[in-house]
Description:
The structure holds 2 protein chains of 2 kinds. By secondary structure, chain A is of the alpha+beta class.
Amino acid sequence: MILRVDAKLxxxxxxxxxxxxxxxxxxxxxxxxxxxxxxxDECVTNIIEHGYRGQPGTIEIEIDRAGESVTxxxxxxxxxxxxxxxxxxxxxxxxEEREPGGLGIYLTRQMVDDWRYRALSDGNELTLIKQVKxxxxxx
Amino acid sequence: xxxxxxxxxxHAGVTVLRLQGDLDGSNYLELIAASKAAQQTGAKYLxxxxxxxxxxxxxxxxxxxxxxxxxxxxxPADPSAGWSALKxxxxxxxxxxxxxxxxxxxxxxxxRTLEMSGMNVFFExxxxxxxxxxxx
Lengths: 139, 136
């Protein structure tokens, strides 16, 4: 299942609905579907605001299931940026002492089991992976 | 996002903002604008009714922080500030809940977002409106 949308913040609701509806079709439970929709929202917001920076562009979102994981692949044509390389905040330090940067990235990390970045010749590919229950055990 | 503004009749200086709809990167500036309008028309405290908000992203967290800053008489931080916004809230609040902006009836998923970010520490959260208003 693929969704191709203009890189505009007004499309965030449409994107979340697409993710939730189709991850549920792939037998993810509601919590997993919500977590993926939230993670994609944060990633797409970053692509629009910090990648395209207000310039016209598109984002392609592909959902699939592989074994006991749902994978979501985001393609964009913005300048290269690897969000997985942003250092996580040191949660052992008090909130007021943490270094700034990457709130959406931090939340994304909390909601997926793995994520992988690949620089393409014409943009970026970001893959989000979340474990879901085996299909046979969900009936 | 639809935001309605009400003055709390029996509680001078308290304005209630009732939010309806998802709060995300497409509309969080509307909450900041509503908070600013309330502050400019005399609000000293805000109660944000989140009962009608099924979803809030990090953009919504930044809007909450900006509302606190406005009630403190400051200019909101850069909306893309992320953790630095939280850092500012923490510094201003001395690592405890600040008294100017309080939250009413956040839905479980919104509460989860607040908890994941650590921002729940800096907001008093109520499930009873009368109790929330009486707390100001």
